[in-house]
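Box S1 | Example of a co-folding query
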Amino acid sequence: MSSQSTSNQKSPVKSGERVIFIVTTIFIILAVIAFGGMEYVRHHSAKPMFSITTNYQFSPEAKRGMDLFFRKGSCTDCHRALNSGTNMGPGTDLDGEGTKRGMAWIYNFLRRPEQTYNGQTLDHGPGKAAAFVSDWKAKDLHAIAAFLTALQAKSGSSVSPVPPSERSPFVDSMVKKFAPESWKTGKYKDMRDDSRVSRKSDQPQEKQ
Ligand code: HEC
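Box S1 (continued) | Returned holo structure for heme C
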């Protein structure tokens, strides 16, 4: 009994603990090295980490709207467009806004948010944090609406109602293998084949 307690005092760390300690230390060192490596690659790569899933073509008015959006208003405190600004969740990422909403809707929203939403808004209604927007000059709101209308989602991006136009061999093989019979026998239509779906914002990608 007493001899064991002296040997414990000599080596307070049990060998199992030592192994855990060494493994943890190695893991942390490797994690730091891996993180450093990835950061190095990210900084030295010309390719953006997240590709912009928006097509845009700006008229002179839309360009002015972009300027107002990014400089005058504090829109980017709460909103994101062209992958920059803040994304506070649903409704605040405005990339692809022009695919969801039309010019008139956006203008009306900026002017009379709650009537246009037909309900309560979080931030745009009277007395709320973004209430100032509705007091802007018609010309400025129009320019912002033109800017936001020009932000068209590429199909397949999370804000696009249009599925990707490219065929994916992987998806096709999965459908062949796992999809219910009714999918394969043509009871349902593959949306990617649907010619009624507008793909005006897409570059043609299919070679046939
Ligand atoms: C304090 C945060 C905040 C600020 C500042 C702000 N917004 Fe918003 N905005 C929101 C939120 C949150 C929503 C979602 C609707 C709601 O509940 O208010 C929204 C919705 C919108 C929508 C409608 C999106 C849709 O399709 O439903 C537009 C357009 C818009 N904002 C434009 C702007 C512009 C332009 C500015 C700057 C002049 C601006 N916002 C400033 C928070 C903000």
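The pocket of heme C is lined by residues 69, 73-75, 77-79, 91-92, 97, 100-101, 106, 109-110, 121-124, 129-130, 133, 144, 148 (CB under 6 Å). Residues 16-47 form one domain.
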